[in-house]
Design brief:
alpha+beta; 2 domains; seven-stranded antiparallel sheet; Peptidase C13
């Protein structure tokens, strides 16, 4: 099939349930062009994205994101990279907070489980005894 979008885009390829599906070619008005696989309207499978600025991305796509390069090498997940950096940033900020006293002043205890199972009751008793000693 073929679709001429109200935004000036043009798609030629397969459709399933009114969405791009299978092999196709999507050309945007700004000059961006994607040729390859689609699933549920998003880039999927092998494909090539040529951007308006002349850059090119080739590889394996899933849910509209490139996950492997043209050689098959896995690409880093930007969300995962960001989350890994958050731990370091949090540690840096916590070190900036001055300690009010050398001893710990706040404890939090969360227990979950079925109260009919003895293991949870024993854990609660152990934690209560431990906190009582401090």
């Amino acid at each position: 099939g073929e679709l001429l979008g109200a935004d000036g885009s043009r798609y030629r390829g397969g459709f399933q349930f009114w969405r791009f599906h299978g092999q196709g070619l999507l050309e945007q008005l700004d000059g961006t062009r994607y040729e390859g696989g689609f699933a549920a309207g998003a880039y999927a499978g092998q494909g090539t994205l040529d951007r308006a600025d002349g850059s090119r991305e080739q590889g394996l796509w899933a849910d509209g994101k490139r996950i492997r390069d043209a050689a098959g090498k896995a690409l880093p997940d930007t969300l995962e990279i960001g989350l890994l950096a958050q731990g370091r940033l949090l540690d840096e900020e916590l070190r900036k907070i001055p300690a009010s006293t050398p001893a710990s002043e706040l404890y939090a205890l969360s227990l979950g489980g079925d109260g009919r199972q003895g293991v949870f009751l024993r854990e609660a008793d152990y934690a209560g005894d431990l906190l009582g000693q401090r």
